[in-house]
Amino acid sequence: MTDYNIGAKIKKLRLAKKLTLQAVAKETGFSPALISQIENNNVSPPIATLSKIAKFFDVKVGMFFAEDEEECRFEVVRKGERKLIPRVISRSGTSQGYSYESLSFRKQNKKMEPFLLSVAEKAAEENTYSHDGEEFLFIMQGSAELLLDDERISLEEGDCVYFDSSLKHRLLSKDGSEVKVLAVVTR
């Protein structure tokens, strides 16, 4: 997370609007403590949390992953250039059992955000998330279970799913072994 300095970008947006942590928390539905932890780069928020924060500040999620302000028309990200976003933490402060990498962080004003998700353990909690936009998930490795509203959908290697992100959702490892997923999210 510190590689992208997401927390500092959020704090800069908040201070530019002269808002308190409490005001941002009230409008986004997160606790002031969580907003503070994110701003101080103590925790990495799930993509859904970043999406809600981005919507509140009227910016694209991609701006949190941008390395510079210069716009480019195309982008190549080499395997060794990807930066892991570790320690994804839920609203309640518990580990979510997954990490992700942004597969596009230089190109700004994108209509979609591609990520490589790694679900590395069976989650203790099965809380779900929802946000604006749409998602596409392609299971590259392992067996997963997608909680989608009131359904539990089994997904195997090679399977994919496309859904409206406003549906409550959560991707889990089916048996506790690692699952690798190509995830594309729109705003």
Automatic annotation (TrEMBL):
Name this protein carries in UniProt: Transcriptional regulator with cupin-like beta-barrel domain, putative
This protein's UniProt keywords: DNA-binding
Lineage: Bacteria, Pseudomonadati, Thermodesulfobacteriota, Desulfuromonadia, Geobacterales
Span of the signal peptide: none
GO molecular function: DNA binding; DNA-binding transcription factor activity
Pfam families for this protein: Cupin_2, HTH_3
InterPro entries in UniProt: Cro/C1-type_HTH, Cupin_2, Lambda_DNA-bd_dom_sf, RmlC-like_jellyroll, RmlC_Cupin_sf, TransReg_Diox_bact_type
Organism of provenance: Geotalea daltonii (strain DSM 22248 / JCM 15807 / FRC-32) (Geobacter daltonii)
SMART domains in UniProt: HTH_XRE (SM00530)
Domain (HTH cro/C1-type) ranges: 10-64
PANTHER family to which the protein is assigned, alphabetical: BLL2473 PROTEIN, HTH-TYPE TRANSCRIPTIONAL REGULATOR
